[in-house]
Amino acid sequence: MADNNLRIVVERNPSESKLSELNIKGWPKWGCSPGKYQLKFDAEETCYLLKGKVRAYPKGSSEFVEFGAGDLVIIPKGLSCTWDVSVAVDKHYKFESSSSSSQ
């Protein structure tokens, strides 16, 4: 079931105050070396790239979203995409728990 509303949102160079408000330094870290990765996001992920450069190709689309070091990225729940990593990635990440509903 393709959902065209699943868009990756990239905020370039977020402010230090926003990063500390989100407590990004307290989030777990993940990294990968250059290569192509098939990824499926079962929960919304927010990540902040310390290093790296990525082109994410959503499944079924020829368009890509590019992001890299210093970017805050929100990847929607349910998105399948291919990450084409040209520069090794080191990032902080956080998954939204499905139990938190906005009221």
UniProtKB/TrEMBL annotation:
A Pfam family of this chain: Cupin_3
Domain (S)-ureidoglycine aminohydrolase cupin as annotated: residue spans: 20-93
Sections of the chain in a coiled coil: none
Superkingdom in the source lineage: Eukaryota
Name by which UniProt lists this protein: (S)-ureidoglycine aminohydrolase cupin domain-containing protein
